[in-house]
Design goal:
heterodimer, A: 338 residues, alpha/beta, Rossmann fold, Alpha-Beta Plaits, 2 domains, six-stranded mixed beta sheet, globular, B: 284 residues, mainly alpha, 0% strand
Chain lengths: 338, 284
């Protein structure tokens, strides 16, 4: 393995055996399938996909919490399955959307304790805690019991816990999930600054926020149903669709009109639907701009009113639609209904 | 390096355990709880004994039961103190996965988490015995205590209980639900088969070998012998064995169960990683 690689996986797979009721036979859920990835040292690598795509499972495998069922993975040069003790001192992880931590301990105590588990000298740990809390705007809450913190502040505390040990490879699993807009912006800014400060640091970030992946990541892997569908820089991924014409249309309820009906029209490449309050939002990918008239004609036939229409540049959402055939929101609701 | 990692794991876990154990309420309430809880437990036993024996507190059976019950506090405290940390960190604080990915030794961490329960358990044992001596005439004379035997036995027993706790912790790792049941069932079984509140001779003959195989049987016997030798020897169960012989059996069984516990924990740890149970929560 090359020493410039922070993460390397080869044909990585993970199958969960699900327990049903006693009468049912055991079902299998394929969470990861043939995942082969490389992440260079110093890179901010994004895993983009809907809920249930396999992002968290991949992080669990890479952080030694879960054994793969096939293939292998190395982090910081060590095999995560056979050499977890070599991996652990060099990594850390933060999971978003959860309020972990010892509620009876203050913010400082929680953070200091974790720093001690990693062998950071106490004085240095206290200095880092102060500096990091200052950076996320929580210095005034240092002596607050973590049970008295709001969910957002608890999440910020956990983000500080991840950075505190100055890991070689940091895994952030949906770090801004549940945070308000301002806090999310602060966290993203902090992530960029942390990476800039030391070029050997590597960060793997999972998200289902397209903008987050687009704004932050050097490279993005789009993952769905446990498979990596594409992996490249956000710019290169979007360039795949550069020749297409993209429209976003907000309409009244579609009255039985489906994306498939729109895709049957000549030169309509993809149509993805998201239900919104009082109507629908459509992402249209057209080979020729003239195809828009045919879609509008369909609206007229079904008495669908156009509320808003924008022509725009391709986004990572469009890349996802192009690869999967439907929007991330559609994919998530389809997963939930199964 | 390995020593420093072990010490770091143990020291910080003990610190964390103590903060969790002692900070759940204000110091006054914590003190009241620490005194009232063991005394209540002992009072139930004393009342039952008084009714059944019609107040015969001079029988050697009374100190036998009283001391057995007092020291049995350690069994629940130390064993579940170690194993409960898995449930607490995984279900309640949702931190077990962060402990797992930290460069620490998880078994040592769990043993460290048990230290706080050992301390609170020791306070409870001391209060129970003190109450017995002061108010119930438990015949404990400081000048007659075999202190060396008492201290060696106590330390050996606590280590043995902590290792049994590790076994329970391993099983708890693989059983996402009903974890409370495992600890209670084990402590309950040991209570019956270890001669804690009645001599093993009371049990049917065919079931006594279970008690003879339990290290807690010899541990409680030696503790009684070191504190009130004549009372303990009034019961025939282990009367044919000298103190040194019982200590040898206790040591052998402790090593045996210790090795089994470490092996079981390793197997369960591997199974938990294979099944994805390290951060699995039941939400109830």
């Amino acid at each position: 393995m090359s020493t410039t690689l922070a993460i390397e996986t080869k044909n990585l797979g993970r199958i969960y055996k699900l327990r049903g009721s006693k009468k049912e036979t055991r079902k299998e859920l394929i969470a990861l399938q043939d995942v082969s990835l490389t992440v260079e040292r110093g890179e901010l690598f994004g895993l983009l996909g809907p809920n249930g795509a396999g992002k968290t499972t991949l992080i669990k495998v890479l952080t030694t919490l879960l054994s793969p069922t096939s293939g292998w993975a190395r982090v910081a040069g060590a095999d995560v399955h056979t050499e977890p003790k070599l991996v652990r001192p060099r990594i850390n992880m933060v999971s978003g959307g959860e309020s972990s931590g010892y509620g009876l301990l203050t913010v400082r105590e929680n953070l200091w304790m974790f720093s001690q588990f990693y062998g950071v000298p106490s004085k240095e740990a206290n200095e880092r805690i102060e500096a990091l809390l200052e950076m996320v705007g929580m210095k005034d809450r240092m002596h607050t019991k973590s049970s008295d913190l709001s969910t957002g502040l608890r999440q910020k505390m956990n983000i500080v816990r991840g950075f505190l040990t100055d890991p070689e490879v940091l895994f952030l699993d949906e770090p801004t999930l549940g945070l308000d807009v301002g806090a999310s912006r602060d966290v993203r800014k902090f992530i960029v600054e942390w990476l800039k400060a030391d070029k050997t640091r590597t960060l793997l970030l999972t998200t289902h926020y397209m903008v987050e992946a687009d704004e932050l990541c050097d490279r993005v892997a789009i993952i769905n149903k446990g498979r990596v569908l594409a992996c490249d820089t956000p710019t290169a991924l979007k360039q795949r669709l550069q020749k297409d014409v993209m429209f976003e249309i907000e309409t009244s309820p579609l009255n039985g009109l489906t994306p498939q009906m729109m895709e049957e029209q000549p030169e309509v490449k993809k149509a993805a639907l998201t239900e919104i309050e009082g109507g629908a939002r459509l992402q249209l990918s057209l080979v020729e701009e003239s195809a828009l008239a045919r879609v509008i004609n369909l609206f007229t036939q079904k008495d669908v009113k156009v509320m808003n229409l924008n022509k725009r540049q391709p986004t990572l959402e469009d890349v996802f639609v192009d690869l999967v055939g439907r929007s991330m929101a559609e994919e998530e609701s389809s997963e939930r209904s199964q | 390096m390995q020593t420093s990692t072990s010490w770091r794991s143990f020291r910080m876990a003990a610190w964390l355990g103590w903060l969790i154990e002692s900070n759940w309420t204000d110091p006054f309430l914590f003190t009241v709880y620490s005194i009232v809880k063991p005394l209540s437990g002992a009072a139930i036993l004393v009342i039952m004994y008084g009714i059944i024996t019609q107040g015969n507190f001079d029988s050697p059976l009374f100190p036998y039961i009283y001391l057995g019950n007092a020291f049995y506090i350690y069994v629940g405290a130390v064993m579940t103190g170690v194993s409960w940390a898995v449930v607490d960190d995984r279900e309640h604080y949702k931190t077990l996965k962060y402990m797992y990915i930290a460069p620490i030794y998880i078994p040592i961490y769990l043993l460290g988490r048990g230290v706080a329960r050992f301390i609170t358990g020791s306070i409870a044992v001391f209060i129970t015995i003190a109450a017995g001596v002061l108010f119930l005439k438990v015949p404990l004379h400081f000048t007659e205590i075999d202190w060396l035997l008492f201290i060696v036995t106590l330390i050996l027993g606590v280590i043995m209980l902590a290792l049994l706790g590790l076994l329970l912790a391993g099983v708890t790792l693989t059983v996402a639900r009903h974890e409370g049941f495992i600890g209670e069932a084990t402590a309950g079984a040991l209570y019956i088969f270890s001669g804690a509140v009645f001599p093993l001779d009371i049990l049917p003959e065919w079931i006594r070998p279970v008690g003879y195989f339990m290290p807690t049987t010899y541990w409680l016997e030696l503790l009684r012998r070191s504190l009130v030798g004549n009372v303990a020897q009034a019961f025939p169960t282990l009367a044919n064995f000298s103190n040194m012989e019982i200590l040898g059996i206790l040591l052998a069984l402790s090593i045996f169960f210790g090795v089994i516990s470490i092996w079981v924990f390793r197997v369960c740890d591997r199974i938990a990683r294979e099944r994805g149970l390290i951060d699995h929560t039941t939400n109830y």
